[in-house]
DNA sequence: TATGAATGAGTCTTCATTCAT
DNA sequence: GATGAATGAAGACTCATTCAT
């Protein structure tokens, strides 16, 4: 039996879904409330029973999106594996999610842009970002990642790289997204693992002395 | 003496500048043609003598922006230094440019989003991106960068990281952008240089022989 | 024990009271049925069980108002005093009622204005107006008021003056409403009494003596 | 030749006239901007070039009305006659103007009512009211009116009476407006003049002759 | 070329009223 | 009788674009 409450929730869900579709298809400004109502199979006024303004509706769509993304991300992470494997899994998830939801993502950016009218639900976005932060910091705790690396730096690199890659691989079929995730994780391993840097450091003074010597040699031979 | 042609060009410049200001301030959809005309000191109809539609005007603004950015980037690169130094210089430039022009950048994204109405001038953007590509590939030619790394992968990482960092550092004063560029380049060096970490061990005897050679060179040249 | 009928009447009363409040606060057009229902503590649909349309509800509110005003006015009149004292009492009542109910009054005017949508319940208004008419005509019957004065002329002056005064004294604290009522009644006395008061006083004993003399003359001639 | 400026002013005039008609016919809230544009023979947007909002347009209509009324009133006053004659002329003017413009007047009241949205142009209304004030105070200066009467009291009575009369005579053809103005002025004369001493003097011989007659009657009947 | 007044389609939002439960 | 979710027509205002001067 379908309760009254269930019917209402089902209607709200339909409206939210319709709004998502319309905003994704047309963008914020161009997405019309009338179209949303039509696709949701309700009258225009009905939409306003659930969301007081277009702005509110947009916000709800975004909230829902990021909440779902966070949920899916957590499900996609392999249990108990090491940090870099988990980061790679998360990277793969993020990339494919962005592929799938590119219009959504653009919507977020558009929302960020038209700041005077729409607001990104930062709290939900932060929840999602926190998935990365927790992985990364656990890596530090476990000694897998050097503790001197600020998490925010790695985080910006992680998300920035993947978002950019998502766009670029979308418009060019020759690019293999897997190459990008693999590269990202490889760099993380190369740069954030304990050993690498000292080696470079050790070589640095040697190189300087060599260069100085070569310069003098140049002087000698050219004279 | 001011020729007729110069007067026209000066007016077009004023319109473009006004358009840039207005779009940056209000965004694409909300930026009004009337406001642009007003700020340019011309009549509304006049704008249409130079740009047939709002879309065209937007496109021109973006074209001009990316062209200028490319020019500035090339000027900012240190002549004759090694690839990583140049990449670091470019990274710094890009980050500060995005800081300075964040609204512009958002405008681009907005343009990308509202795909049905506005289009990013891809050719100009590609010109800019090519600055990175050329640096990177010259690095490969010089043997400074492993040739197995696909340029596009590094490029997406480069721009993606920096764009994301630009946004995140903008909204949080505690973050030091320099840390992000340094990290990016360090990772590039760690991951894209020919020697893999394991190789370090193999390097030891080589280092010793080099040290000896340098010492002898020093003796020779200083005497 | 509360009968079913009493419960219904109580609900109707609550709706009417809520409607009154809402209309007074927001005016006719801006007063929303939903707000009325909310304040009455009933569902929106319920209001329509008692009043078929907003128009009907408005009418009912006005009917109730004028009926109450008439009742109060009659209570405010001093028993057995002379006409001018009673008129003054009524004037005072009317003025203070208009002060108290100015929003109501405006509502009436608004109703009168928006003639296409709302109608003033003329019958109830006439009942109220009749309070004046009866006082005035009884004054004529008693010889206190010259019979040549058309009642409607005095009536329009009475209500017109007081309504205007009510508004003007409301918005200016320096004005004393009592001055206005006193003035109105004084003018009535000055203009509607057969002779000016002082003259009447001088002539009074003379008239009495004449009447006494005539009475005796009657006795003589009839005998 | 018709200048550009003249054409614009002519258009503004047409819009104002159309707005006046529409507001008078339908009232504030119900008067639609689309209808005004249609009647003015312009596009909807054009109206907004001249008046930024509906509210502004309403205000302009009212301003114009009161300004015109003041002008007409001043023209209607007979030069150089005594105060009461002038007051009577003004009363006649006001009454007939209200007859003619009753819907306008209602509009004003409606505006006053819907105070949250529309505002009466008080300054223009005050200009009109000042016509009465000046007549009345000049009457005081000339010694025609007792100086103890507060002008505002007389003013409220004047306008209140006439407005009410205007409404009441409109809906009842049997009432003669002239009776109302005459009555108003008569009461003013009766109440605001310094007692007509001439009348008292004329009565004196009559009183004497009556006294004598009564005395003789007394003699006759008492004997 | 330049002007800027005019256009009118487009859109969000409101709210009296209905009706299935 | 009572509910309150749903309806959908209506209306103020915007703004890119045009065109007569």
Structure, explained:
The structure is a homotetramer of 223-residue chains. Helix content of chain A is 78%, strand content 0%. With 223 residues, the first copy, chain A, is mainly α. The first copy, chain A, folds into two domains: 1-52, Orthogonal Bundle (Arc Repressor Mutant, subunit A); 63-222, Tetracycline Repressor, domain 2. The N and C termini of chain A lie far apart (99 Å). Chains A and B meet through helix 6, helix 8, helix 9 and helix 10 of A and helix 6, helix 8, helix 9 and helix 10 of B. Chain D binds a DNA duplex (21 and 21 nucleotides) through helix 1 and helix 3.
Structure, briefly:
The structure is a homotetramer of 223-residue chains. Helices cover 78% and strands 0% of the residues of chain A.
How are the secondary structure elements laid out?
Four copies of one chain form a homotetramer.
Chain A: H1 4-26, H2 33-40, H3 44-50, H4 54-76, H5 83-100, H6 102-113, H7 122-141, H8 151-170, H9 177-192, H10 196-222
Chain D binds a DNA duplex (21 and 21 nucleotides) through α1 and α3.
Mean pLDDT of chain A: 86
What is the share of helical residues of chain A?
over 70%
Secondary structural class of chain A: mainly alpha
Return the CATH architecture of the largest domain in chain A: Orthogonal Bundle
- Helical stretch count of chain A? 10
Query: How many strand units of chain A?
Result: 0
The termini of chain A sit apart by 99 Å
Tell me the CATH superfamily of the largest domain in chain A: Tetracycline Repressor, domain 2
**Major sheet characteristics of chain A:** none
Task: Give the overall shape of chain A.
Answer: elongated
């Amino acid at each position: 039996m379908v309760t009254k409450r269930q019917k209402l929730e089902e209607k709200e869900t339909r409206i939210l879904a319709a709004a998502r579709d319309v905003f994704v298809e047309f963008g914020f400004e161009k997405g019309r409330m009338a179209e949303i109502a039509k696709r949701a199979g309700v009258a225009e006024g009905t939409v306003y029973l659930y969301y007081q303004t277009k702005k509110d509706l947009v916000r709800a769509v975004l909230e829902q999106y990021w909440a779902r993304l966070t949920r899916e991300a957590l499900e996609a992470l392999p249990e108990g594996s090491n940090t870099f494997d988990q980061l790679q899994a998360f990277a793969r998830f993020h990339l494919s999610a962005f592929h799938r939801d590119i219009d959504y993502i653009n919507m977020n950016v558009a929302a960020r842009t038209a700041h005077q009218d729409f607001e990104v639900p930062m709290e939900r976005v932060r929840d999602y970002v926190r998935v990365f932060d927790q992985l990364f910091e656990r890596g530090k705790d476990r000694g897998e990642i050097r503790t001197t690396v600020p998490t925010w730096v790695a985080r910006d690199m992680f998300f920035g790289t993947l978002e950019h890659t998502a766009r670029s691989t979308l418009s060019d079929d020759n690019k293999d997204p897997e190459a990008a995730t693999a590269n990202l994780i490889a760099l993380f391993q190369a740069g954030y693992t304990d050993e690498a840097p000292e080696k470079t450091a050790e070589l640095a003074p040697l190189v300087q002395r060599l260069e100085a010597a070569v310069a003098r040699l140049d002087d000698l031979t050219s004279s």
